[in-house]
Structure formats: structure tokens, C-alpha cells
Design a protein that fits this description.
alpha/beta, globular, 5 helices
């Protein structure tokens, strides 16, 4: 079964939640990210607003964390940070890990990136999330 899902982040600051909810099966919100330069982590500045808005209109929600991890240790830090942002929230869709940052991850081998993703997923799944 195909779902119509939207990716929503700070780049869509003004959303008509009721209108969008009628047109889609759910949304995946960016909860946070790691900036590739100094690898500082931050919460998406519109996450709380979007989460509350979509939940208020009964739209199913999932989230993703945008990674810049180039080591397993950094992926574990990202997972811990993401878990801190998930507290008190309920999701109908999974928690996703977005690994597409060319500056930090483009040079990694398939095995290295797989180890990074496995470490992040293990940490998040161990906390009870899918």
C-alpha cells in the first residue's frame, strides 16, 4: 500500500495543518539535525509548532533526524540527542535517520556508513522506538 507522506521542516514555516492533513496520509517532521561544519546538534526550529499543529488535526506523525555523523561515536551522540527531543511525544510513523550529507558522509565507505546507521538505530530501538 502506498502512502502520501510529506517531509516538513523549518523550510516550511507556515503550514495550514488542517488543509495538509486532508491531502496526505501523514507527515515526517525533521526533529533535529547535526550541522556538518563543527558537528553541533540542534532542534529544528519549527518542530514543536509543526508537531502540535499536526497532532491537533489528527494527522499521523513520524520524525527524522538529519545526520552528519562520520563516526560511530558521533552517531551515538546524535541518537542520544534525538532521544532527548522525542521525550513526551507520540508517533504513528517511525523515527528515521537521514544520512545524505555529502560533506561528512560522502567520503565514507558503504561499511562505515552502515556501521554508523546500525549504531544509531540500535540506540533508538533500545529506547523503545521503531
Amino acid at each position: 500500500m502506498a502512502y502520501k507522506i510529506l517531509d516538513i521542516s523549518k523550510y516550511q514555516p507556515n503550514v495550514d495543518y488542517a488543509k495538509v492533513a486532508k491531502a496526505v496520509d501523514g507527515v515526517i517532521l525533521r526533529i533535529g539535525l547535526t550541522y556538518w561544519g563543527k558537528q553541533n546538534m540542534g532542534k529544528d526550529e519549527c518542530f514543536e509548532k509543526h508537531y502540535a499543529g499536526f497532532k491537533a488535526v489528527g494527522c499521523p506523525v513520524g520524525v527524522y533526524y538529519y545526520s552528519c555523523a562520520d563516526t560511530v561515536a558521533m552517531a551515538e551522540k546524535e541518537a542520544d540527542y534525538c532521544l532527548s527531543l522525542l521525550k513526551g511525544k507520540q508517533f504513528e510513523f517511525p523515527i528515521y535517520y537521514d544520512v545524505e550529507n555529502n560533506e561528512r558522509q560522502g567520503k565514507l565507505t558503504k561499511a562505515q556508513l552502515t556501521n554508523i546507521v546500525d549504531a544509531w538505530c540500535y540506540r533508538v530501538q533500545s529506547a523503545g522506538y521503531f
